[in-house]
Amino acid sequence: MEAYRKEIEGLEIVTPQQLEEYRIKFLGTKGIVKSLFGEMKNVPNERKKEFGQVLNDFKQFAETKYETAKEQSAGNGQQAVEEIDLSLPGDAMQTGSRHPINLVRKRILDIFNRLGFAVADGPEIEDDWHNFTSLNLPEHHPARDMQDTFYIHQNPDWLLRTHTSNVQTREMEKGKLPIRIICPGRVYRNETISARAHCFFHQVEGLYIDEHVSFADLKQTLYFFVQELFGKDVKVRFRPSYFPFTEPSAEMDISCLICGGDGCRVCKHTGWVEILGCGMVHPKVLENCGIDSNKYTGYAFGMGIERIAMLLYQINDLRLFSENDVRFLRQFV
Questions:
Q1: Pick from 154, 243, 259, 312: CA 20 to 30 A from residue 177's CA?
Q2: Residue 48: which residues within 8 A CB-CB, separation 6 or more?
Q3: Which Gene Ontology cellular component terms are annotated (predicted)?
Q4: Residue 87 located in a structural domain
């Protein structure tokens, strides 16, 4: 033990590693102190008290050395922390960017805000009445086949909304006229994922109801919107179409900005891209929502934000928007 005492006195413990090595060697479960106490069984009974006192003194000596070195090590660490210069500049952080869908959504809303449209929002999980029946799509109506749907509960029916038209019906039910709203949001349809389609996407729908609203008002609103978004030189055409919630109905095409009208897979090699559907609100829809169709008329329109973004940024695959590839997302500011 005298040899161990001299060894401990001569030790210089500076680093945390040296401190831990000392603890293991002398105070650990298989350390020297533990080993010396194990020798008590070999000491004659008449000398056990004397030997025990010597062992306890040695143990206290070894523990005191450890505690002193531990305090010094902590003090050195605190001193090192205090020596850090907090005025030095930190590591540079890379600035993120907004998602292209959000950028396009904001541009669309800004244009319609200038025309007096207010933003309205509604639930993504919807009942059958607000998503279908109130929009002149009663149960078993063949037009429901146009929207293959994700049902989450049936009898009564609850589903992931297939369009943001549910927001329009909820606003009409409030009975506060006139109505001039724009309804952005995410919608869901059970479609095969491809360069042109996905099982979820984002829409912006608009609704204007007042006295003496005409199809001419609708056309001029959409002409203004397209020219503000795509420029004065974009070509526009309206095609007659069918939607159960509007009559008459039309689809609006613009010249393809990706191929310049020469034809590509986005425009199906026609030179034209459909960007929205529109029409005059069906009188049945007005009546379902408690609005007098003899006094009020209105128009509605809806567009997919992904389709608009593909044209604005000349992107030929819709799936890029949802793959979260930072190499793609970093291109937008």
A1: 243
A2: 40
A3: cytoplasm
A4: no
Which structure tokens are listed for 176?
A: 């506060």
Q: Give first-to-last CA distance, the chain, whole Å.
A: 74
Range(s) of the domain holding residue 23 = 2-82
Phi, psi of 328 (to 5 degrees): -80, -45
Describe the crossing of helices 100-114 and 305-313 by its angle, rounded to 10 degrees.
100
Please indicate if the annotation marks 20 as binding a ligand: no
Cα separation of 20 and 236, whole Å? 79
What is the spatial distance between Cα 230 and Cα 289, in angstroms, rounded to a whole number? 35
Are residues 196 and 270 both part of a single domain? yes
**pLDDT, tens digit, for every residue of 254-278?**
988 777 778 887 678 888 888 999 9
Contact 160, 124 (CB under 8 A): yes
93 part of a folded domain: no
CA distance 283 to 285: 5
**Orientation of helix 2-10 relative to helix 48-82, angle to 10°:** 10
Let me know: does 159 contact 166? Beta carbons within 8 Å: no
HEC-encoded secondary structure of 194-227? CCCCCCEEEEEEEEEEECCCCHHHHHHHHHHHHH
What order of strands is seen across the sheet that includes strand 118-119? 118-119, 179-188, 200-210, 297-304, 272-281, 246-255, 236-243
- State the Cα–Cα distance between residues 331 and 290, nearest whole angstrom: 47
Output the average pLDDT for the chain. 88
Contact 157, 188 (CB under 8 A): no
pLDDT at position 20 is 86
Give tens-digit pLDDT for 42-79. Answer: 888 888 888 888 888 888 888 888 888 888 776 665 55
Does residue 253 form part of some domain? yes
| 307: number of Cβ within 10 Å | 20
pLDDT at position 239, please? Answer: 94
Token look-up 């329109």 returns: 301
